[in-house]
Design a protein that fits this description.
Blueprint lengths: L1 H15 E9 L2 E3 L2 E2 L5 E3 L3 E4 L4 E6 L4 E4 L4 E10 L4 E10 L2 E4 L9 E4 L4 E11 L4 E13 L2 E5 L3 E4 L16 H9 L16 H12 L18 H19 L4 H13 L25 E13 L5 E14 L4 E10 L15 E6 L9 E3 L5 E4 L4 E3 L2 E9 L3 H10 L12 E9 L11 E10 L13 E12 L3 E12 L4 E7 L6 E7 L5 E8 L5 E9 L8 E10 L3 E11 L1
Parallel strand pairs: 9-11
Antiparallel strand pairs: 1-4, 1-6, 2-3, 2-5, 5-8, 6-7, 7-10, 8-9, 10-12, 11-12, 12-13, 13-14, 13-15, 16-17, 16-25, 17-18, 18-19, 20-21, 21-23, 22-23, 23-24, 24-25, 26-27, 26-33, 27-28, 28-29, 29-30, 30-31, 31-32, 32-33
Length: 577
């Protein structure tokens, strides 16, 4: 796009150019001239949008700014040396909403946004402001100054400002704030971001949907009685939460910016706290902050088919997550099939299962991922992915780090995450790129959770005497409630080869019962009963390594069923208390 803009702009534009308009929804103007996709953006440019306008700017250092409707932004200063990867960026947001994804310049702390009520200094970060004084740090760090006082925001933190008054102390964003801002920066109905009109005509969509899916069976065919159609609000809830997780780390798909943050972490000098903080500046590098390791575990979720009669069904499977520190990459492989409560965790003959791959490892090919540290990583499906004949795109994200933990905790009530040292868990979503011609929604969407840990080395590593209690959480996707969470406890009797499991307050239900070790004692499973509406939960899990014990942690998958066609699927994680 930059090359195209230079060719169109002439010698004068080349001398002044600082970036390119990478997406535009009219009405948006630069110095009162309508912006078009691919247009050069110059130093001192004055960008204005109307109620139906928005524009995304991609700067030479890979910084991205998305300017929302009814906004006014001026680029006050932009200097960039591509050889040294240094420079300075300063802009004034006179009014309106802005999303900022830092590129090379912000990694040295030389990016500054001035609003009507505050001055925001950004280092390696992702920032959103609503034009009403609300400022959110999606990633990195930033300093917000107003009324002669300053506050420092970390990942996932929010402050409210007003002219002449100090910023409020850092806190969680207001409920729905992140999702609302994401919606502001997305194209509205009928807008294309500059793509050729007519490319998504009803005829083209219908043809693509038929070609992609062939039928309404989707990527994962279920078994047993068809589930009750899902109410549309549930689909919207899952999509909103998934978008929040994804965009908190990977706003505007700026993988290069996040990978640079990962590289910065290699030279940052302060040890993180026990779980959720990124390193800052001090004297010693964080120990084992970015191990190269392959984790194995489980996956759960739901499959939503958006045909004329929408349906939801539970899915289950296994996960393998490879963290490649040498190349700052992540590869996730999720093997998913339909969950049938009558034959739990069994891939039944005649059913179709899906193999989803996210990201990549090694040094060749596109990364499609970023590995910041052991708490913060994500991976996307490769471009042009096709699964079972269906073109798809998706994301797999860790929920352990500060970049997502506060969003997760705010979005999912009753969640107290496992304080696991080695075991990791998170969210995944995949959707077909074809759409239902009647609703314009993705033809099929799968959304769920994953858990993965360091496998126990051998059978002999599992004790044969003694007891231990493991505590953590269960989180599941339920057909009439969306994501729900509850407390998890498993008191294991290694001599008896059993575990007494309790799950508390999961969608207003408590579960309890006994699980038994498999022939391979590294694995266990069983069914426990709920105290509400004849609900039951099937569990299958494994012991995982902990920092001081070969069986110090555990993780697994759950399937839930009950009266009135109630069902769900998810994961659990626990650490030895």
């Amino acid at each position: 796009m930059t090359a195209a803009a230079l060719a169109l702009g002439g010698a004068t534009a080349q001398a002044q150019q600082v970036g390119t308009a990478s997406a535009v929804n009219p009405a948006a103007t630069a110095n009162l001239k309508t912006i078009v996709i691919g247009q050069s953006i110059a130093h001192k440019e004055h960008i204005q949008t109307k109620s139906s306008g928005s524009v995304q700017l991609l700067f030479l250092d890979k910084t991205s700014m998305t300017i929302g409707p009814n906004s006014d932004l001026t680029i006050d200063e932009y200097v960039y040396d591509p050889k040294a990867n240094t420079g300075k960026l300063a802009a004034t947001l006179g009014k309106g909403a802005l999303r900022f994804v830092g590129g090379q310049i912000s990694h040295n702390g030389d990016a500054e946004i001035k609003t009507a009520s505050a001055l925001i200094g950004i280092r390696g970060g992702v920032m959103m402001t609503d034009g009403k004084g609300g400022i959110y740090s999606g990633y990195g760090t930033m300093t917000v100054t107003s009324g002669g006082r300053s506050v420092a925001l970390g990942a996932g933190e929010f402050t409210q400002t007003q002219a002449g008054a100090p910023p409020t102390p850092p806190d969680l964003p207001p409920p729905g704030f992140v999702q609302q801002q994401i919606a502001i920066f997305q194209s509205a109905a009928g807008q294309t971001g500059g793509v050729r009109a007519g490319a998504a005509s009803a005829k083209n969509i219908a043809t693509a949907a038929q070609r992609a899916t062939g039928s309404s069976n989707g990527m994962v065919t279920g078994s047993g009685a068809p589930p009750t159609p899902a109410p549309p609000p549930i689909v919207e809830q899952l999509s909103a939460i998934s978008s929040a997780f994804t965009q908190s780390i990977q706003i505007s798909n700026q993988a290069e910016a996040v990978q640079q943050i990962a590289q910065d972490q290699l030279t940052d000098k302060s040890p993180p706290d026990n779980h959720n903080s990124l390193p800052t500046d001090n004297n010693t590098p964080p120990p084992n902050a970015r191990p190269s390791v392959t984790l194995r575990g489980y996956v759960g979720g739901v499959d939503v088919i958006n045909d004329n009669q929408p349906t939801m069904r539970p899915v289950s499977g296994t996960s393998e997550i490879t963290l490649d520190a040498a190349n700052n990459r992540v590869q996730g492989n999720l093997d998913i099939y339909a969950f049938d409560s009558r034959n739990p965790f069994t891939q039944l003959a005649g059913t179709i299962h899906a193999l989803f791959e996210f990201g990549s490892k090694g040094s060749s090919g596109p990364a499609n991922s970023a590995y910041v540290d052991y708490n913060n990583f994500y991976a996307n499906t490769p471009n042009n992915s096709v699964v079972n004949g269906v073109p798809v795109n998706g994301v797999m994200v860790s929920a352990n780090g500060a970049a997502t933990s506060q969003i997760v905790n705010g979005a999912i009530p009753n969640l107290t995450p496992c304080q696991c040292e080695y075991t990791r868990w998170g969210f995944w979503s995949v959707e077909s790129t074809s759409t239902n011609p009647n609703t314009q929604t993705p033809r099929e969407v799968l959304v769920g959770t994953w858990v993965a840990g360091r496998p126990v080395g051998s059978i002999s590593d599992v004790p044969t005497i003694g007891q231990a209690t493991y505590t953590g959480h269960v989180i599941a996707n339920v057909n009439n409630a969306g994501f729900v969470a509850g407390g998890f406890s498993n008191t294991v009797d290694f001599g008896a080869r059993t575990g007494a499991v309790s799950v508390t307050n999961l969608d207003n239900t408590n579960y309890s019962g006994t699980v038994n070790f498999d022939n391979d004692p590294r694995n266990f499973g069983g069914m426990i009963a709920g105290n509400n509406n004849n609900r039951s939960m099937t569990l299958q899990g494994s012991f995982f390594q902990g920092p001081s014990s070969p069986v110090g942690e555990m993780g697994g998958r759950v399937g839930i069923s009950g009266d009135n066609n109630y069902f769900g699927s998810g994961i659990f994680a626990g650490t030895k208390r």
